[in-house]
Amino acid sequence: MGFRADSLALAAGIAALAASVAAAQSPTPKPETIWLDAHNAERAEFGSEPLRWNDALADEARRWAVRLAREGRMRHAPIAARNGSGENLWMGTRGYFRPEQMIASFASEKRHFRAGTFPQVSTTGNWADVGHYTQIVWRDTRDVGCAMAQGRDFDVLVCRYWPAGNATGAQVAPRPRVANR
Predict the structure, then answer these.
(1) Is there a contact between 114 and 123 (Cβ–Cβ < 8 Å)?
(2) Could you give all domains of the chain from N- to C-terminal order, each with its CATH number?
(3) C-alpha to C-alpha distance for 104 and 136, rounded to whole angstroms
(4) How, if at all, do strands 52-53 and 86-93 pair?
């Protein structure tokens, strides 16, 4: 009996070691990949085409995120400084939030979204309650670049979008789904 129990314990130990080695060898996705995938999951659900990662937008976002982290406050970059790109901003406790949670906070605004003509697209009557979400799913937007910077006790995420969304007078509605037959 002792031999069998020892063998089972040894086999379990080897299996656990193999699993931990495999996990250690699996590369952790870069934040850029996670941010892009999270954006594209929301766009797919809405019926918008996937976004492409844009390094130039990410570099602009990084510079603005560093500035916000240094200043310790949130504010959008002046429109002229964004070269026609849209912008989503996020701030949270330093080191506490994963990249996908940052984008999920933007996407959580969909609970207030209603299809319509921008800016009348929120069940609350205030487009700012859905503005991050509508920028993510905006049909004409094709590129995204995001970057994070750390302040003293907070993280700042800036995402830039090309072309910008949230254009007054534009229709914002999910693409109709084709029923399975």
Answers:
(1) yes
(2) 29-172 (3.40.33.10)
(3) 11
(4) unpaired
**Is the peptide bond preceding residue 27 cis, with omega within 30 degrees of 0?**
no
87 touches 106 (CB < 8 A): no
For 90, the 3-state DSSP assignment is strand
**C-alpha Rg value of the chain to the nearest Å:** 21
pLDDT digit string, tens, across residues 38-84: 999 999 999 999 999 999 999 999 999 999 999 999 999 999 999 99
The dihedral over CA atoms of 165, 89, 38, 124, expressed in degrees to the nearest 10, equals -70
Residues in the chain: 181
CB 100 within 8 A of CB 38: yes
Query: pLDDT (tens digit, 9 = 90+) per residue, 120-148?
Result: 999 999 999 999 999 999 999 999 999 99
Question: In a 3-state reduction of DSSP, which class is residue 111?
Answer: helix
User: 107: phi > 0 → left, psi -120 to 50 → alpha, else beta; which?
Assistant: alpha
Distance CA 154, CA 69 (A): 8
Cis amide bond preceding 78, omega within 30: no
Q: What angle do CA 31, 96, 39 make, to 5 degrees?
A: 35
Helix axes 99-107, 31-46, angle to 10 degrees: 30
How far the first Cα of the chain sits from its last, in Å, is 58
